[in-house]
Amino acid sequence: MNDKVSNVVPARAGLEAQQAELADRIARNVPGDGLHDSAVPGLALIRASEPSQPLPTVYHPSVCVVVQGRKRALLGDDVYAYDPLNYLVVSMTLPMVGQIIEASPEKPYLCLRIDIDPALIGDLLVQLGPAVPAQPSGERALFVARTSASLLDAVLRLVRLLDTPDEAAVLAPLALREIHYRVLVGELGQKLRELCEVDGPSQRIARAIELLKTRYAEPLRIDDLAMAAHMSASSLHQRFKAATAMSPLQFQKQLRLQEARRLMLMDGLEAASAGHRVGYESPSQFSREYRRLFGAPPKREIEAMRAAGT
Fold first, then answer.
1. Cα 291 to chain centroid, rounded
2. Are 48 and 100 within 8 A, CB to CB?
3. Which of 35, 89, 198, 270 has its CA 20 to 30 A from that of 65?
4. What is the pLDDT of residues 165-193, one digit of tens each?
5. CA separation for the pair 38, 249 (Å, rounded)
6. Which helix (H) or strand (E) holds 249?
7. What is residue 188's three-state secondary structure?
8. Quick one: residue 268, left, alpha or beta (phi over 0 = left, psi -120 to 50 = alpha)?
9. What predicted TM-score, i.e. pTM, was given to this entire model?
10. Coil, strand, or helix at residue 36?
11. Which helix (H) or strand (E) holds 81?
12. For 57-86, how does the pLDDT look when each residue is reduced to its tens digit (9 = 90+)?
């Protein structure tokens, strides 16, 4: 056996050992299926004991590391599969479709989500200095990259701190900083560099997205967004669609429908009230567009969600 092959076996065994410990610790720290915030700010743990149907949702800037099972995210016509070998990075807020495709009661889907801190990314970039030119990574605001032992090591140290809350207050920020660093210097970390490039195209699109998030219920013209992003209307439309796979108005519509769904599911609002709250003047239009996104009229879909305990 040559040196190259002999080095691969211990490396793979090391990754498997890290993932096994992570799976055990996540399973011990969640009460059941679902998404659970942890005692460490910015860290959430996710468990599912069976595959799911495709579910429209809003992903926020984050790093998603799967330690058991498999999931995919669909953005437009693009499919991003992530599993114990590959982690997902979402660099901007994106409405898309998520689906757990590998999970069982014996081996549940286990994942952790770490919020991306732009201030921390910016601070690291000051230390790292100019980037070495990287190969083009596409224009989408998310990517899948190969999971490394060094990244898993930092993630494992962070998750271990859930058992020592007193130490977590001091050591968790250090582990989170290292995780951000590992992603930043990883194979596709250029995406995060672009997001922090002062007045660069990615940062301008991010500004337009923030405006849509804060004013999703208001009528917004493309010119308003272009002004906020300091871009021409045509350039904004082109770059926005390249990053998110949808136009700004389609993006706004999905934010509205997602918020209406939350209002009905969590706050108990009726469909007409929820639709009006998020900016729809026509109940029939709201019901039609809701059904198109979620697959059923508002009342029926929310009743199904409650019956399923989601």
1. 24
2. yes
3. 198
4. 999 999 999 999 999 999 999 888 887 78
5. 34
6. helix 248-267
7. coil
8. left
9. 0.87
10. strand
11. strand 78-82
12. 999 999 999 999 999 999 989 999 999 999
